[in-house]
């Protein structure tokens, strides 16, 4: 196989259980770049929440690129400049907020710079501040939204057991309108229907001129499934959920055993 681009998820994949990038993983990324292979971090996070990881991996040089918001935003990492961006229109944000009220779940709206916090159900403050500490949280009045209200991602963040029960109550029409993905046990993410990490690889192909068949994608969770399926070489972590393992051509070691570095060294480096 001839791999020209490696797309790597963060949590549970590149990051170990201490939320760090191991020296073996960093060394493999460095060697891949030296060999001319593009290394792209792909995440549901905003760029600001992963800058320290990009810097740690040497991925903030000219020409380095990242897929954020699960593929909904493509950015040059050195400058933060947006290359492609897909956002929710105002009416969709209102629709998803109404659903959160019907379900009794806290909801947050995330754009490039801010986490917007509408009124939460009584006694149910969002758990998202425990997940996201890179962007400021600002209250917002949902009855008086500006006409231009571009939102990259909408989340319901609540205790896993109750969240899972509430997810079962979501009408099918919402799955037809939007992409719904559990990215963490306590986090349900809504993205525009045209967004997933697999479609993000297609955007990278258009921008960089690299065929998807020449890409490797490495992941572990449900929101990684689309890119593991879409890439020419799909790799699942040993700690991945069964759905991702079943879709992958290769299963590498766990995130605590430098599985990313192992896969790059075995299948990418000459």
UniProtKB/TrEMBL annotation:
GO molecular function: magnesium ion binding; phosphatase activity
Stretch forming the signal peptide: none
GO annotation, cellular component aspect: cytosol
Protein name: Haloacid dehalogenase
Lineage of producing organism: Bacteria, Bacillati, Bacillota, Bacilli, Lactobacillales
